[in-house]
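Q: I have 85 residues here and want to know how they pack in 3D. Can you give me a structure?
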Amino acid sequence: MRGLSGEESGLALTRVTGNDAEQRLRTVVQRNQQFGLSVRKAIGAAESLSKAQVAARALPALREASRRPWANPQPRRTRVEATKP
């Protein structure tokens, strides 16, 4: 796209001329920049999304465990264990 706007690209492209062609090129460049920004945002959100998916998968199990606390009892500590740090 830079080559079409007259910048050196190493591809020996001729510069776009004419009002209509220049406007179309500006539109393409603008859309390409918006697309690049969206891609960068998506890549940046990937880790957060992955963590959210893991948490969402764990919710049904947590909910079920909270309904039946007797199903997964915590082991009782003896007096000796209770005094240990």
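Q: Anything worth noting?
A: The radius of gyration is 30 Å. The mean pLDDT is 76.
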